[in-house]
Structure formats: C-alpha cells, structure tokens
Amino acid sequence: MVFEMKKVWLFFGVFLWSATAGATEGAYAPQWLKLLHYQKNGENYVSVVENEAFFLTENGRNNPQAEYNEAIRAFNEKGNLKKCDFPARFAVLKKEGKVIGDLAACKEYQKFLGDVQPKAVTLLFTDAYMNNPSSMFGHTLFRIDTKRKGTQLLAHGANFGADTGDEHGALYVLKGLWGGYFGHFGINPYYDVINLYNNIENRDIWEYGLNFTDEELELFTAHVWEMQNAKIRYYFASKNCSYVLLLMLDAVRPELNLAEKFSGYTVPLATLKAVHQVPGLVKTVNYRPSRQSKLKYRAQQMNAAQKKALKNIIKNDEFNVSLLNDEEKADVLETAYQYVQYKYVARDLELADYRKKSFKLLSARSKIANQHQYFSELKEGKNPAEAHEAKQAEVLFGVRNGGAFQEIGFKPVYSSLFDDSYGLLKGAEINMLDAKIRHYDRQNKYVLHRLDLLKVKSLSGRDMMFKPFSFEMNVAIERLFDGKIEEDHTALTGGVGGGNAYALTENLLFYVMSGVGAGYSGAIKHNGYIGANVKAGVYYNHDKWRLNAEASENLATNYVGRGEKYSVEAAYGLSRNVMLYADYELFKTKWHDDETVMFGIKVNF
Amino acid sequence: MKKNLVLGAVFAAAICVAQPAGAIDSTGGCGLGSMAWKGQSGIIPQVLAISTNHTFFNTVGVTLGTSGCDPNGRVTGGTGKMVLAVIENNMEQFAMDASAGRGETIETIAGILNVDSEKLGAAAQQNFAYLFTDENVEAVDLALKMMELAKA
Question: Are A252 and A275 in contact (CB under 8 A)?
C-alpha cells in the first residue's frame, strides 16, 4: 500500500514536472508564446500578428521554436542589431540566460526611452460621447507614465487602432467586420490624447494605474516599441483595440490570461471590467472630466447672479459682470471662456470671432489677481468599471386582455433606460438581440413575443449651454396586435424618430419626438405598412428608481399600425445588477384594445 | 459569426478606429484655435486654420528648433522645444491657465524649466497683456516670453 502510494506520487510528480517543464522558459513557455502573440490552432501555433517584419524567420508566424532559436542566435551575434527591433524578446531571453550583452547600441530605441521616460503604466478608458448610446462601449488605450518633472501631460498614450484609410459607409463596415483592415499601435503625447477625447469629443477619460513591477514596466515599454510595427488583422466586434490591449497585458504578465476570456465579441467596457477584477492589478483610479462635464459642473455651482451674467455673455454677447464680486467674476469668465472653446470645436463660431471673444474674456480674467480657484473642480465621477453587467435575463408574470402569461427574456448587451445607469450614460439605451418568449395559459402555447435586433434610444436634456438632439431607432421581430380579430401576427418592424428633451429637474426629463416606421408581415393586407408617429413622455432616473411614461399617436397605411399607445414602465434596483420591474401598456385601436400589465425581476450577469 | 455581424455593425461607428492623421495644416500657423480641431479632418478646419496669420512663426520657429505645429510627435528635445510643444499643442488651455495664474499647463512648463509653478503662474498672470499682445499671438512668441518670465 505504501509502495503503491509512492508510485502514485511518483507518477503525479512526473506528470507535474512534464506539464510544467519548459513552462517557465523556452519557446513553448507562456512568456514566449504570449510575447509573440501565438495562439493555439489545433495542434499548431499561429500568431495574431501577420506581417513578416514581426518575425525573424520565414515561417516564424507558425513556429515559436524556430523564432526562439533564431532570436538567441541573432541577439548573440556581434554587430547584429536585430535585437533593437525586439527589446522585449531580448529582455526575456536575457532573463533566461540565453543571451548576453545589452541594448546600449540601439540608438533609436534609446531615444524612445529617453523621450518616454517610463515610470508606470496606466490603462485609459474614454467613456461615452454625450448623446451617443453606442459609445457606451467606450474606448481603451494605454498611457506610459513619465518620470519627467512637471505633470503627466508629458506622458505618452499608446493606442491601437485600425487603419481604415478614407473609406466610409457600407464597405467600411463590411471590411471591418471581416478583418479587411489592419490595426497597429501609435504613440502620442498624452496632451494630444486629452485634447482629442476631453476637448474635441467631450468624453471623460478614466485613468486606471496598473500595479506593475519595474521589470514588468520595462518589458511593457519594450513591447510597445516592438508592437509599433506589428500588423494585426482588425475585427470591429472581436479582435479590436480592447482585445489587443489584453494581449499586451498577457504578454507582460502571462499568468493574467485575460485575452482568452474574450473569444467572441469584445467591447472595451467589458475588457476594462476584466482588468478591474484582477485582484491587485489596478492600484489607482483617476477621473479626468471632459470639457462638457466640467462646464456642466461649473454651471451647477453658480449663484443666480452668476448664471445671469454667464447667460448674458454666451447668449447676447453682453459683457456685464460689474455686479459680481471678484471671485464670482473669475468663475463666470473662466466658464464663459471654456464655453467659447466648446462652441468653436462644435463649429458654431468662426475663427476670428472665436479669437476675439476668447481674448476679451481672458484679458478680463487676468486682471483679477488671484490664482485661487473658487469653484471646486469636478473630481469624482462614476467609475464605468463598476457599471452593471452586460447580459440580462428576466422572468415576468402578466395579464394580457384577461389572459395570464409568463415571459422569459434574455439579451447579451447592453443597457436599457431601466437598468442602473451608474458609470454609464444616463438617459441612453442600447439593446441588441433582446429576445422575449411568452407562454399564454389560455392557449397553452409558447410564442416568440418579441426580438429586438437593435434598440437604441437617447434622451438628452437641453439647457442654456448644450442643445443635444434626442433620438430613437429600432429594428425588431414582433407580434403585431390585430384589433379586428384580436390576434397577433408575426412581423418585421423598424422605425426611427427624433426630437427634443428638456431637463425639468436634474433627474427628470420631458421629451417630445416624432418618427416614421414600417412593418412587414405576410399575414396582413399588402404584406406591410408604413407609418408615422408623434409621442411625448417623461423619464425619471434617480438612484434606485427608473421610470418612463409615454403616450403616442400612430398613423399607418394599415390599421394594425394605427392607434394610440400608452405605456408606463418602472424599475426599482435591489442592487446594481438586480431589479424589480413593472410595465403597463395600452394600445387603443379602432376595434378592440390591447392591454397588458406585467411584473417581474431582471438580473444582469 | 452572425452575432458578431450584428453587433459589429453597431460597434463599427464607435470602436477604436485609428484617429485620422493630424489634419492640421502647419501653414495655418499655431495661434489660438489652430489646434482645437486637431485630429478632425475635413475641409472646414483646414480652410479656417489657413486664414491664421503666421509671418512671425516662421522666423522664430527655426531658432527654437521646431518645424511647426507638430501634432503627432513624441515629447522630445531640449527645454525650449518642449515648452514650445506644450504651448502650441495646448494653446487654448495655456491661455486660460496664464490668465488665471495656475493650471496644468503652467505646472508642466514650470516642471520643464525647473522653476516654481506658483511663481511662474503669478508671473504669467501679471504679464498676461505682455504675453497676449493681441488675439492672433503665436505659440513661438509665447514660448520665448514664458522662458523669459521663468528666468526673471
């Protein structure tokens, strides 16, 4: 028995040894495989990097061992400067004791290190464009923090993007989906990153400081250098910027294994969450508000006299701040100046006019000799890494026209008006492939009640400074109610609409919209209809409560699309990912009405 | 694959496409507003940028060793070149920071020049009229004057 146990242990030991042998070093160790971005393809390996310049051997893309051997040979060869193109590989091989020497002779790489002066690595997430729900997925890039004296304005962003050239429209989308473009890494000063996202696109930037060791920092910086010339086939939905960023992190710390969790579609917000959830990896979170966020925050803090003065400046070009004290004046002038910048970038101002206004405001501001900032800066945001999870399942119970039903639903992405908007764009929704299946007790049958292929809505309040457009868009397979015979017909429907929303309070919007739509169904006359609608509604979102009430008048070429619709939907969040939900809908037609009330629970995961 | 197709169609508009190469036309000068549209291509920004007065820039730009509004390079060079790069690429923010006597661009320039940020801010504010002689002032002019103020 003892002998047998020994045998088992021995066997187990050999197994462990063989599984880990070479796992820390060599061509098939995770470090080498991930640094060259090899992935297993059946029995073989293939790198996601496609261009020959990234490899030392002819078949290097498929042969980790040949690459490994050739790297050792070339990096040890006197006078061979190939190592300068691949400083990260050099560092790994040096650590393994396979190569000797250093990179002192690599002029360009040394110049790069001298410019960048790496101190740390920060993951950047730029969140939603105001008024654009699809941008809720965000964008991710890296920052190599600098040791330079001064501020991180002198750091560098490392961005992976697709080279799409000048193509637009359908070709652009198709090429992007099927990998028709290549992506590569670009390096820019951090102030360029700030200007682009914060000031031109008005998107907040989140800075997640990564907890790297000095060795990891060195490897990362070196790897960014060698990735500048790497071409990776770019897929909008899967192998996109955020996926490649995970590959980069895996290359530096192979045990992270972040990329393999994202084999299907990948969105930046999801990868951010994955990074955020690795224990100890993110050590600091810093929020850098967009110009628009700053402006809104400043305006909120103003007293009535300041608001009036600001309005006079930006609306009527009337420059009267004499009633304000110096502190109040300074805030108004600084805010008005930033608003002028905003208007100019939005192309609402001519250059000459813009310069004149800017100059006037700043000249006045400079005469108030106080460097103190009176308004508090907007420092706290809602961390998008802590937003609700993307997938959602629901179970609802309801009654429709006197008959009980149960409904189950699922959607893979992303957020509706009734989900917790923490860390996301409030008043915006984007849902895809949202399926709902019902069981009606009376007929005892299951039906696909509704499949929203795409549902987008953006309610964005207009105020003195900002005039966003509110809109909605929808493509669905749904059950159309036929009031004449009190039955449903399966139909493909779609619609678009737009209008304005007004902020009645900070959390309450009133909106009016008009739109057009169409439906196709074999079961109705002429197989389809076109229609138009006008609607008005209120949307409330504060803390745990989300509520939307809407009334619409619908005109259509077929009676199934005609009538008045009323709906009240409400949600109460039990936690960020769990909510109670209730819905009342009434469709008043010329014949019978269609009335539904339901209640249930929705869970994000 | 189908799932990817539908999702991709929607993401296409939003996800991480490379920013268009800096569309700023360096012949348009480097004054206030010249960098505000950096990264945006199209005819309108270029036309507007060209309308900028730029006679002063060409002569002094050579002295400091830059080739003009350089939107895509790395942070590099000696102190003069770096101060110029920070000002010309952050002109709008710098103008505000100078008028208020504080801010991130002032801190950055003070760091490059290794001087006290508060003092430099105060000097910039007091000398705002000297820095910004009119609304068409150029980055090179400002960089030289800021270096002068830092010495004082």
Answer: no
A536 contacts A561 by C-beta, under 8 angstroms: no
Give A149's contacts in chain B (Cβ within 8 Å).
Answer: 111-112, 114
Q: What tokens does A436 get? A: 């709902």
- Which 3 state secondary structure label does DSSP give A85? coil
Which residues lie across from A477 on neighbouring strands?
Answer: A451, A492
The secondary element (H helix, E strand) that includes residue A400 is strand A392-400
Q: Is the pLDDT reported for residue A377 higher than 80? A: no
Q: Report the run of H or E that residue A366 belongs to, with start and end.
A: helix A351-366
Please name the residues in contact with B66: beta carbons below 8 A apart, sequence gap of 6 or more: B77, B81, B84, B85, B88, B140
**CB burial string A78-103: b at 16+ within 10 A, e below:** eeeeebbbbbbbbbbbbebebbeeeb
Indicate the DSSP class of residue B20: P
Q: Which of B17, B70, B113, B138 to mutate to test the interface with A (most CBs of A within 10 A)?
A: B17
Cβ <8 Å between A358 and B32: yes
Tokens of A131: 């008024």
Query: Which among A150, A173, A237 is the nearest to B111, CB-wise?
Result: A150
Residues from chain B contacting residue A191 (CB–CB below 8 Å): 86, 89-90
Minimal C-alpha gap between A404 and chain B (Å)? 33
List phi, psi (to 5°) of A135.
-80, 0
**How far A359 CA lies from chain B's nearest CA (Å)?**
5
**What integer pLDDT is reported at residue B63 of this predicted model?**
40
CB A268 within 8 A of CB B16: yes
pLDDT at A331: 93
At A169, list the tokens: 């429209």
* Residue type, position A117, single letter: Q
CA–CA gap between residue B35 and residue B127 (Å, rounded): 24
Q: Give the DSSP H/E element, type plus range, for residue A73.
A: helix A64-76
What does each of the 152 residues of chain B score in pLDDT, given as a tens digit? 344 444 444 444 345 554 443 333 333 456 666 655 443 333 333 323 322 222 223 333 334 444 345 555 788 888 888 999 899 889 999 999 999 999 999 999 999 999 999 999 999 999 999 999 988 888 888 999 999 999 97
Number of CB atoms found within 10 A of residue A554's CB: 19
DSSP class of A106: -
Question: Structural domains in chain A?
Answer: 26-105 (no CATH), 112-288 (no CATH), 294-366 (no CATH), 387-604 (2.40.160.40)
The per-residue DSSP string of A535-564 comes to EEEEEEEETTEEEEEEEEEEEESSGGG-EE
Q: A28-48: per-residue pLDDT in tens? A: 999 999 999 999 989 999 999
